[in-house]
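Long-time lurker. I teach an intro course on protein structure, and each term I like to show students one example going from raw sequence to a predicted 3D structure in token notation. This year I'd like something fresh instead of my usual example. Would anyone be willing to generate the tokens for the chain below so I can use it in lecture? Attribution to the forum is fine with me.
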Amino acid sequence: MKNLEKPPYLVIAILFFGAFVAFLNNSLLNVALPTIMTDFDVEYSTVQWLATGYMLVSGVLIPVSAFLITKFKNRTLFLTSMVIFTLGTALAAFAPNFGVLLAGRMTQAVGSSVMGPLLMNIMLVSFPREKRGAAMGIFGLVMITAPAIGPTLSGYIVEYWDWRVLFEMILPFAIASIVLAFFKLENILETRNPSLDVVSILLSVLGFGGLLYGFSMASSEGWSDVLHVIGPIIIGAIALTLFITRQLKLDEPLLDLRVYKYPMFALGSIISMVTSIAMFSGMILTPAYVQSVRGISPLDSGLMMLPGAIVMGLMSPITGKLFDKFGPRVLAFIGLAITAYSTYLLSVLTLDSTYTYIVVIYTLRMFGMSMIMMPIMTNGLNQLPTRLNPHGTAVNNTAQQVVGAIGTALFVTIMNSQAAKEGASLVANLTPEQLVDPSQQALLAQQSLLHGIQMSFLVATGVTVLALILSLFLKRVNVSAEDVARIEAEEK
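-- Reply from a regular --
Happy to contribute to a lecture. Here you go:
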């Protein structure tokens, strides 16, 4: 694949529209899970599969995206993905029972899994390396903002409408995206005919699927569960080891892990993974504090996250331009410093922290996050030859899915274990009369959960500091004419 002389703005706009619809869907259901649980009379461990299953399917399919992008024309791939996504959305919207709803959600995941990698690869070939920062900043606007506004929109709809509206409102936009793509989308990416290694696909499904399933189930089943947690993690780890070994030996690997021989890509990928773990802490712990500790309504919970989403949306293109001017180290260091500080402030929340205080801290955290991910990812991808772009984006996306599951399990485990210890400690200091007092029991539950959340955020602070230290070793990838010529020469 070669860089284009002139960016195909219409093609990019159509892909942005489709990707925004798909990405918005990622976080749209989180606030609605309690309502769906009641409507279909299922347990939380069952209903959470609407979120966990979506992540599991995406995580299994993203490694295959590099092969699909190389094999099929981007117009065919986008149309097929959007049709599958639309069918899944319709299935979920009119689901008569939970099984059909889950099937629709899984179908959505199949369709949307290739959207991010496809759009990112078109962005990479559409703009010269020295201007990729600004372009990827616009991509970040879609990738970050769409999931960020999901909880706010979902909170409003769940409060005043039916949860099915979450799917019904997506349908016309998904259909419009298909119509636009059918008439206006052009083929941009060059294709070839790579061989498909079936063994690699099987190992990929077992490896990534096993790890994602095991870590996702740990939060509900506990770490001692052999069938749902320990077994899948062990199988996943063995399969992943075999998968990595096989990829390094194949001439045409399913996922080319040789991208890690490029130092800035490798370092950027590691920082991105560490940051993702910290980011997932906020996605899990903040709603737990707001709704379970403070008893704030779903709508107000969603509105609380809206300023942060707006800030991320506004900052994404600005961050891209700053990256082109200053490089990744300054941005990543400042962003991680702000994120670490704001995460620490979340670790000292109390039972009476004001609504405004929570909004300000959460927004500050999102401001810091907006300066991290896209600059370090773009800098790493700039070091890769163009032929490795599909593999670089697939590796980054897969890694984030896996560490997302690990991060979620880690922080839920810390929260639950610390809450249980605090609860036992508090109970020991109560009188028999206080133990049977309903108001005292409610306060005890709030204080215990708050302590668990505080400790989890404290661990997240330490994780963010680790990423902050690693960011000091970032170096800007030179994109002079000589360097570009040298990188592209590696393709021959």
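Some talking points for your students: The chain has three domains: 1-193, 197-253, 264-492. Residues 264-492 form a domain with the Growth Hormone; Chain: A; fold (CATH 1.20.1250.20).
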